[in-house]
Amino acid sequence: MSSTDAKKDGRKKAKVDGATETLEVNNLGISWFAPFTVLSTSSISFFRSLRENLRVDNLVSTDQFHFTRKSQLAIGQESSRVVENDLPGLVCNDLCNGKENICIPVTNEIDVPPVAPEKFEYLSSIEVAKNFVIPASAEGCNCKGKCTNTRTCSCARLNGSDFPYVRKAGGGRLFEPKAVVFECGPNCGCGPKCVNRTSQQGLKYRLEVYKTPDKGWAVRSWDFIPSGGYVCEYTGVLMKTSELDNVSMNDYFFEIDCEHTMNGIGVREKRLGEVPISNGLGAGEDGGDKLLVESDPDYCIDAGSSGNVARFINHSCEPNLFVQCVLSSHHDVKLARIVLFASDDIPPMQELTYDYGYELDSVVGADGKVKELACHCGTADCRKRLY
C-alpha cells in the first residue's frame, strides 16, 4: 500500500523498532498496530469498519494485531510507542508489584484528585491461615510432558474420561462449566505447560483495575478474551468461615460453595456431571466414594487485607465470567480453588463481572437485622438488589 493510499484510508505511519506499522486510534484512546506485511484485504476492511464505528466492542485480538491504550494527550502523535505512565488517571503502575507475569495498572478518572485503592497485600496464589491443615496431595497421572491420551491419563478419567480444556493458541479454554474441574497436580508426571494445568499458568490477558462512577473499583481487559478463556483465580487467605472476623464489614471474601453448584442448592444452577470424591473431608465417614450432599460452606477465602485482582471484579446479574471450582493439589471439594473463566467472547475494555450468587435476605448484620444492598450492574434483567 502506498503512503497516499494509507493517507486516504485514514491511517498513520509510525516506526517501532525499525518496522513500519499502521496505527488506528479511536475516541477512547484505543489503538491497534499491525505490520503492513501482515495486512490482508480482510484486515484492511476491519480497520475501515473500526474507524467508521469507533466502537470498542468491534475489536478482536489476533496474533497479528496488538491492542493498547493511550492517553488523550498521546492521540494524534506519530510515535506508536506507548508509555504506561501516559494512561489517563493512572494511580498505580502495577497492582501486583511484579508478582504476576503481566503488570496490572490502576486508573482513576472519577475522583479529583485521583486516589488509589486501599493498600492490601497482593497474593498471586492462595495463602493458608495459621493452624490450618491442607489435605495431602492426591496421586497424579503418569503422563510425560503434556497430557494427550484420555484413555491412559488418570486425571482425564476424573473429568469423565476427557480433558476439560480445549488446546488453543494462547492457552487452554474450558469447554463448558463443570461441577468440578480436576487439573493435574504436584504428583503428576506432566510438565507446567500441560493443557490440564491451564489455571496454574498465570495471567494470560492484560487486566486493568479502574474506578467507576457508581460501583467503586472494577476490572477490564485490554485484550479480547475468548469464551472459556482463563481470567484469574480468586486468591486470599484460606480459612474456616466461622473464624472470619467482622464478616459484616468485609466486602472481600468468597465462601467456597462448590457443593451448592454440584447439587443445585439455593440460586446455584446444577451443572452436568457427578463428582465422586475419595478420602477427603468431603468423603463419608467410612472414607468411601460418595456424592457430596447439601451443607453450608465451611470454608472461605478472605481477601480483605490480602488477595489479588479478582477482589475488584464486580457482580452482575448478566455476567460475562463464571465461577469454576478447580481441584489440583488435593481432591477435597470443600477446599477447591475458585477460578474465573469467560462465559462468552469478551471484547477489550468491557467490564469483567461474575454473579456473586447471593440469595435475597441472606445477609444479616451485626445487629441481627437483614441487610440490603442495591445492585448497580445496569443490565436488562438486573434483580435490583445484590442481597
From TrEMBL:
EC class of this enzyme? Answer: transferase
- Gene3D superfamilies hit by this protein: SET domain (2.170.270.10)
Which species does the entry assign this protein to?
Rosa chinensis
Which domain of life does the protein's organism represent? Answer: Eukaryota
UniProt keyword terms in alphabetical order: Chromosome, Methyltransferase, S-adenosyl-L-methionine, Transferase
Q: Name one Pfam family in it.
A: SET
- The SET domain sits at 205-357
Domain Pre-SET, by residue range, is 139-202
UniProt GO molecular function:
double-stranded DNA binding; histone methyltransferase activity; zinc ion binding
Cellular compartments annotated: Chromosome
Name the predominant localization: nucleus
Name of the protein this chain belongs to:
Putative histone-lysine N-methyltransferase chromatin remodeling SET family
**Which BP terms does GO give this entry?**
methylation
Q: What residue stretches are annotated with the Post-SET domain?
A: 371-387
What Gene Ontology cellular-component terms does the record carry?
Answer: chromosome; nucleus
Q: What is its EC number?
A: 2.1.1.43
Q: Does the keyword Ribonucleoprotein apply?
A: no
